[in-house]
Amino acid sequence: MYDRRDKDQGPGKAAPKPPASTAGGAAEAEAVVFVCVTCEVPLTGPLTRLPAVPELPCYEWWNAEEPGPSPSTVPSGFYAIETEPYGAPLVVSEVSAQAMPRYGTISNEHGQYLVSQGPRGNIVVNPDDAHGLELQHVSSACCGATPTGGMNQLCACGTFVATLCSDCCCPYELHLSADRVRAVGP
Ligand SMILES: [Zn+2]
Ligand SMILES: [Zn+2]
Questions:
Q1: Closest by alpha carbon to 167, among 143, 148, 139, 131?
Q2: Basic and acidic residues: which segments have biased composition (predicted)?
Q3: Which are the contacts of 28, defined by CB distance < 8 A and separation ≥ 6?
Q4: CA 176 – ligand 1 centroid, Å
């Protein structure tokens, strides 16, 4: 004889749990594409955020056989947020300070140091990861572009969207303007 106790399913089946939408970790590593806010054209490939702008790669540009850009500060496929002021305008500083992050010092004709009072929050990317941008020089340079005059990269729609730094003696970086571009999901 069997003592058959029919086990029912209990009071209501457990509803399937909705997937946790805020499962940290994986979400942070999701790549985004930056588009122009004016015309929505993609300006970069998919990029993953770094926690901070990396240290400047060690590179002896003065020993380089040919003038040209240094190795990119940000590796290909990544971006980082610059927390310090960057680009124009440059203002006189009473103390010795580099003009902007990773850039070195600049002084005016009176020997006074100049420092950036430009916007914070630029999105720093490898210039080789951007496309569709046209360089319009706004400050003098010997073989590339310099950021001291402000934004120098035009979107196809004619809007300045970024500042390229690519002269041989400078860090090789493209700074997307935080209020001229927008991150969209993959
Ligand atoms: Zn545009
Ligand atoms: Zn140069």
A1: 143
A2: 1-10
A3: 49
A4: 12
Ligand 2 center–CA 170 separation, angstroms: 8
Q: Please give the model's pTM, rounded to 2 decimal places.
A: 0.82
Using DSSP, state whether 62 is helix, strand or coil: helix
Q: Identify the residue whose tokens are 């997307």.
A: 176
CA of 62 to the centre of ligand 1 (A): 36
Residue 153 has pLDDT above 50, yes or no: yes
Beta-strand pair 90-93/113-116: antiparallel
**Using an 8 Å Cβ cutoff, are 170 and 145 in contact?**
no
Tens-digit pLDDT profile for residues 69-86: 889 999 999 999 999 999
CA neighbor of 118 nearest in space, from 159, 90, 139, 137: 90
CA 156, 162, 167 angle in degrees (round to 5)? 110
3-state secondary structure 76-98: CCEEEECCCCCCCCEEEECCCCC
Candidates 64, 73, 106; CA nearest to 88 is 106
pLDDT digits (tens, 9 = 90+) for 14-65: 444 444 444 444 445 689 999 999 999 999 999 999 999 999 888 888 888 8
